[in-house]
Amino acid sequence: MSFRSRGSGRALLPFGLDYSDVLSADNGSEKPQLVLPINGSLNEYEVSSAQQSIAFSQLMIDGPFYTGSYVDPKAEKKQKNGTASNNVVSNTAPDGIQRYSDKYKKVKKIGRSIEEHPYQLEFFPEELYSVMGITNRQKKKLLALSSYKSNGGLKDYSIDDENSESDKAASMLEKLKDMAEELDEDQEGKDEEGDDLEEELDDEFDEDEDDDYNAEKYFDDGEDDGGDIGGNDEAAF
Amino acid sequence: MQGGLSEASKTQSPSSYLYTCIAQKNLGEIAAIVISSLISYGRLSCREISHKTKLSVKVVQSALVSLIQLQCVYYVKDENSGTVHYTFNETGVLNFLHSGEIINHIKTAYGDDHAEIIQNILVNGHIKVADYINNIDDAQKKLDTETLFVKLFSDKWLVRVQLFDFHPYADIWNNIYQDILKKTPRSATTSEIKRVNEAKEKAKIAFVQLLESGQTSKDLYTVKDGFKTLNPNLIVRFNLNRFQKHLRSVALINLAKSRIGTLSAKIYETALNLIEQESPDIIHPFLQISGLINDPEEERAFINSIENKSVEEKKIVFTIREIERSLPTDLDLRNSILTHNFLKPNLKKRVADEVDSPNKRVKTESDTPDLLAEFQLKNDIIIEEEIDTDSDLQSTSLIQHHLKLLSSGSTIQFLIEMTPGTYTIPFTALIKQLKQYNFETLVKTTLGGNAFRVLRCLKTQKIGDEKSLATAVLLKEKTVRNEVYKLVKANLVEIQEVPRSADRAASKTFYLFRHKEIMSYNFLRNALIFTMSEILVNISNFKEDHKILLDKCEREDVKGHEEELLLDSELKTLKNLQAREISNIGRFNRIKALFEIYSL
């Protein structure tokens, strides 16, 4: 407080303490209180152990039992566009911005199912089987139920029973006769058609309705020229 | 509660901080969140984990599958409700903690192929032998791999996985004990306490039988084309307990090296390697069940009984012959032990006597070469060929002298000679001395020699005030006060107030000081764990500072072509980052070595 002058009252020290002890106490210092021995350089065995330790940590991080980092559920929902799954650590940076270099980053898979690692199932409690890819659920088997049909579902055929066999034979004969007649008619028809076709073809070639290519048409041999005398003063060429 | 890894994972305990850091580094943030939640709440179901951590049930289930596979989580199913509850299992996380050293040690001791198998098993948690072998196409390589598996399994680096490995010991014990208690009828002649004790003893036997089940030769091995191979349907995992025994051996060897000498430590290392496999477990399963052995005396007696049983069964007993056979061939023990009689004349006769009768007293090798040279100059005697009558690099007598040094050469008894030529290692007593010695060295180097003297004095006095300390330590009272203050600040010394007046006025109170070992060791252990976690966080921080460059290196088009595609400055930064990471992990491992001592 400002109105108090410095050194106005000497603080009473607890019993046993001396002023020299108080003044020498270095409470605000950041220096270590104890002087510790200096660490010597590592020998070959120690370096080798340290290297193995670092390599082992990396193996665990790349291994099948790495559990990944904590992701805030709200941030996860925003990032999730249906692409990132729970089992895959996305190679996108934590800020959520996708970059070209992301394709070179390793995509880590979290957790392994029974197809990926040979778990000894007898050592695990059953409640964890679901995450290991083992489903214990049995599908409910449904009964094959059918609907009631009065006629038993059989097809209804209408058949005449009297003289059925002789009628059948007669009808078969008639059918065969008809077929034979038809065949004969077909054959005659085909022959006539064949002649007609030839005549038609000849007529086609003979009857030139279009006689543009008839050279004689253009040739006039002068037989009709005598009847025509005088009348025209122009010279005849 | 917001999602993500909470601050509580760091603050609730140093162990939680370390375990979540390791889980995050190796398995990802989701696994770390689940582990943190299980450490906080103890036992939770899947839905409860989902609710506490704000993760979806599917994500939690997926994480639990990974954690169970890697032995990071136990589970137990409630018979009545059918709910499955999960608890934290530190085995898996400790596997990750020691992974580098495990792979390196196997590579050094056995070879690259063995190390590859161990690495793959650590990465996958547990595997079926057939699945591993079927992944290999080459028939010869398949046979070789089967042989490697047999070697690792017989040396107990791999153990069989059974269903009870996934349940907490406390629950297994509880089920067995309740079953046996129900089957033990009440009777009028037997008291309830006696009945309960009987049931407990029977349950202990049943529990041990369960843990040892499935270990017969028939279960584990098959004979294929005349060769012994592992049963292909066997499921195996890495045996962390075996590696912890190895770490204990390394700590004991280093202690012997500092107290006795390098050569004696080498012989000690050979002895430890012979019996390491069968040595007592770091923590017996009974001691992991809280409430089973409560009394500290009972605990001590139980631990001693296990060690005595191992000695009786000759599991941790070795002979000089075995040492001789197993010593490395390039180890030269000549002139490593010199007796005090070498200064006297008639040396040849004396040396012959020494070789024949190894029971005479021996001196250590310190300073003797200089004395030898002086003696040579003075007396003009050629001593070397006379002392070196035995040209064998590793003669039985030399080995015996070293073993004698280890058993009675210093205040720490590294070996016990049971019968002449037969020795054993007293693990329980040695661990106590190991912790004590390392702790005192730490205090001496960090707090100073005076603080160390005061602490030693307090230990011998059990409890003392400033005056008695000052007279015992021979320092001024003010110095003693300063040193005690330093020790109190470092949580190594406790203060006991003794009021002299009824109103407990501070002016009429005097203070007693006391040092409790277990509290100090626990505090040190927690401090080391915290430091290890800070190192891991430091590594991830400096990697985060260079995230852009590291992401660039992770790109699939850049990987393998860094020298072509990156700038010189970027390559230099990468190299510095790598060196920095290796240096940090090296320091991490050094602190971990000290942490392991105080976890024994």
Write structural notes for this entry.
The complex is a heterodimer of chains A (237) and B (600). Chain A has 237 residues and is mainly α. In chain A, 33% of the residues lie in helices and 2% in strands. Chain A has a two-stranded antiparallel ribbon with strand order 1-2. The N and C termini of chain A lie far apart (153 Å). Among the domains of chain B are: 8-88, Orthogonal Bundle (Arc Repressor Mutant, subunit A), CATH 1.10.10.10; 93-240, no CATH class; 430-515, Arc Repressor Mutant, subunit A (Orthogonal Bundle); 520-597. Chain B is mainly alpha-helical. Chain B has 29 helices and 14 strands. At the A-B interface, helix 2 of A face helix 2, helix 3, helix 5, helix 7 and helix 8 of B.
Briefly characterize the structure:
Chain A is mostly helical and 237 residues long.
Strand content of chain B: 5-15%
The largest β sheet of chain B comes out as: 3 strands, antiparallel
Which class do the helix and strand fractions of chain A yield? mainly alpha
Instruction: Compute the number of strand runs of chain A.
Output: 2
Helix content of chain B: 55-70%
Strand content of chain A: under 5%
